[in-house]
Write a structure and sequence with these properties.
Oligomer: homodimer
Shape of chain A: globular
CATH architecture of the largest domain in chain A: 3-Layer(aba) Sandwich
Number of helices of chain A: 10
Strand order of the largest sheet of chain A: 3-2-1-6-4-7-5
Distance between the termini of chain A: 52 Å
CATH class of the largest domain in chain A: Alpha Beta
Order of helices and strands of chain A: EHEHHEHEEHEHEHHHH
Radius of gyration of chain A: 19 Å
Structural class of chain A: alpha/beta
Largest sheet of chain A: 7 strands, parallel
Number of domains of chain A: 2
Chain lengths: 256, 256
């Protein structure tokens, strides 16, 4: 059986919904659940009651403080959202996304793909979406497209379950073979971005403090969306070190 | 617009589940609901509360005393069941069933296909299944295949919807119009890369001259592949200017 994607619930509100998500996941053979800041704490009795037996999924769920931490070891992350986003990112229908996950999981020993789901009321924040390689869209009646959380999880997981390898991968831009061609885990990209942000801060790049979060999010969105390979992240880090090294030599007073 | 199948809930127990079924139906553009002997009577406040706005589906639902009456005007009926039945009847997977419904609906003015769903606890009786042309099976994790009622309705209706290209993939999450979201012309990326190469040259980044062409090609590949927008190219240029500006102030002797 091919590897299932990791399901990541970001700031879910109701324990009952988390339990129903676990049930929907297990219905489709998807077992790895990660939860970012569940509103009502964890473990949660309502979740257990609603899981209808999918207790192992809940018991093995991992908790995270931030979405970035929850996706740090993943190479390919989809953000489930129906809303317009002011970000340029590929949009995959659920079945296309499922084929992409299948393709990227080939020959892996551990899951390297994840699907993000936002809180019940508001959906994912732009900062969460910025961490993703692509947007997963479930095509529904445009006049009535609001799904509850567990049903969104069900349709995404069912699409994965229905998919097999008969179909060619959706991605035209699949990386080349070889270790260096493996996509970088999100955490490696995050590390690079932290260094970049520090350097930009020191260089006075953020002239307008109120705009800093938006500018940072755009930068983050670009690099996460770009799905760099490990080698590319190393090159980007090398570029930064090279430019920073020059500065360090000459502007040591800037270093604290 | 192709006709959607009729959804027939046979002896549903909880009003809440009926409401969630109505919501799942409307999510998929399925609007005709028939209900056989709802346990808690009709209309039902719990159903309305759980429908999350799919009120028209509930208001226009028709009530029946028997399953036979509920399917009397239909030509093709599917019985949703996961259990083995001691009956000889074709078994269709959800996607096959959906194609069958599409095919049989061609050129009809009124719905002639229906899908039966049984009570929450027990599922359809053999007498109900006997009324069907075929069995609809939703392929799930064989070790954990019990769906709640609304989720079974959702998967059956979604399978039908997926056969249909009525709803194009979310124009929703496509990038917004406007200059900032437009992908940068290759020439703009090239200009940025020329500046980057110059800066890297000056920073001593290319320590091994023979490897320089390969490294440069990898960098170029990353940025071209990433399909940055015009705004992102401007941001990348701004990053470079910020880092270079620091250097210029202190290392003017490097500038030729």
């Amino acid at each position: 059986m091919p590897l299932a994607p990791v399901v990541i619930l970001v700031r879910p509100q109701l324990g009952e919904n988390i339990g129903m998500c676990a049930r929907a996941m297990l219905n489709c053979g998807v077992t790895e659940l990660r939860i970012v800041q569940p509103r009502d704490g964890w473990p949660n009795d309502d979740a257990i009651a609603a899981a209808s037996g999918a207790i192992d999924v809940l018991n093995s769920a991992k908790l995270y403080e931030t979405t970035a931490e929850a996706v740090a070891d993943l190479e390919y992350v989809l953000a489930t959202t129906a809303r317009m986003r002011d970000m340029v990112k590929p949009v995959l229908k659920a079945d296309e996304a499922a084929r992409e996950v299948h393709h990227r999981h080939d020959d892996r020993a551990t899951p390297n793909c994840g699907i993000l789901f936002g809180p019940e009321r508001s959906g994912l924040e732009n900062e969460d979406v910025a961490l993703a390689n692509a947007i997963l869209n479930i095509p529904l009646n445009p006049g009535f497209s609001s799904l509850n959380l567990a049903q969104a999880v069900l349709l995404a997981c069912y699409s994965w379950l229905c998919c097999d390898n008969r179909f060619p991968p959706a991605a035209a831009a699949a990386p080349e073979e070889g270790d260096n061609a493996a996509l970088a885990p999100r955490g490696e990209i995050e590390t690079f971005l932290q260094f970049l942000e520090n350097d930009l801060e020191q260089a006075g790049f953020f002239r307008s403090p109120p705009q800093k979060p938006t500018i940072l999010r755009n930068i983050r969105n670009f690099f996460f969306r770009s799905s760099p390979t490990m080698q590319e992240v190393r090159t980007l880090q090398g570029i930064l070190v090279a430019l920073r090294g020059k500065k360090r030599g000459s502007k040591a007073e800037n270093q604290s």
